[in-house]
Amino acid sequence: MRPLRLRDGRLVALVLVLALVALVFAVGSAPTRSAFSAKVTNSGNTAATATYFTCTGAVGADTTNAVFAYRLTEASNATTAVDWSGKGANGSYQGAMTATTPSPNACPRDPGSSYQLNGSTSFVSTPASVRNPTTFSEEVWFRTTVAGGLLIGFGSNQVATSGQHDRQVYLNTSGQLVFGTYSGTTQVVTSPKAYNDGAWHHVVATMSASTGMRLYADGTLVASNAAFTAPENYTGYWRIGYDTISGWPGAPANYSFTGSMRYAAVYSTVLTQAQVTAHAAAGS
């Protein structure tokens, strides 16, 4: 048999035709592929698996140590803020309870509305007095455009203006977050930035004899002082949305909070950075 040569035109043409047929067949029978694109919107341009998908899941994981946990998702005109921590510490809505569903909403993967506080008569108080909590964490989601008002705190009176008041988290007249306690002198830690920008924010304040005072905003530690270790010794009630903040640095003329709230809770332990981060991520 003689060897094949390129000058054999018909043979070369046949080879080219067969190659073209094979190529068409291969392309035509290739499996269909699809793709998607995604945009990461956090400031770090990073993505990761969230520890919890909902605020119910995040807060619920820590309710063993909760004093109370309120979703604040009851319908308008409700009188009871249901405690779902299992402790039975149902709170009382004072003044008008108005439920709204803003867009966006905090904890958007949780069903239900938000609590709209009117800046004058709206607040929540706990049902029973507590003797001098010295180790605690308090948290709430909030949204406002008003610089000033109590977010959450501890006072000696259940529904009226308290004579003794500390362990308070409030917005000052510059819109900054302030966490204050009193032990002979006023002790405060203050966030560098303001949070009355109309966006949802998550705040946590913690205190104990070993850790001092810590203030977190949106999962990040923004202020602390390890030397402030003891709050005022008295029996009182936890209050959400209103109590006097007279005498505190930057206190506004109106102590009532104006805006929206979701998921308020107090714990008998100091939440860790990891827990705070998980709670904040679940609500954003």
Can you tell me about this structure?
Helix content is 13%, strand content 35%. The chain is built from three helices and 17 strands. The protein has a single domain, classed as Jelly Rolls. Residues 1-7, 11-17 and 23-48 have low confidence and may be disordered. The protein is mainly β. The protein is globular, with a radius of gyration of 29 Å. The strands form two sheets. Strands 2, 3, 6, 7, 9, 10, 11, 12 and 16 form a nine-stranded antiparallel sheet that branches. Strands 1, 4, 5, 8, 13, 14, 15 and 17 form an eight-stranded antiparallel sheet that branches.
Q: Judging by the overall fold, what is the CATH architecture?
A: Sandwich
Determine the strand fraction and express it as a percent band: 25-35%
Question: What is the average per-residue confidence, as pLDDT, rounded to a whole number?
Answer: 88
**Computed CA radius of gyration, to the nearest angstrom:** 29 Å
Tally of strands = 17
- In terms of structural class, how would the helical and strand content be classed? mainly beta
Binned, the helix content reads: 10-25%
CATH topology tier name:
Jelly Rolls
Count of DSSP helices? 3
First-last Cα distance: 78 Å
What string gives the helices and strands in order? Answer: HHEEEEEEEEEEEEEEEEEH
Task: Give the low-confidence spans.
Answer: 1-7, 11-17, 23-48
CATH class: Mainly Beta
Largest sheet: 9 strands, antiparallel
Q: How many distinct domains?
A: 1
User: Which outline best applies?
Assistant: globular
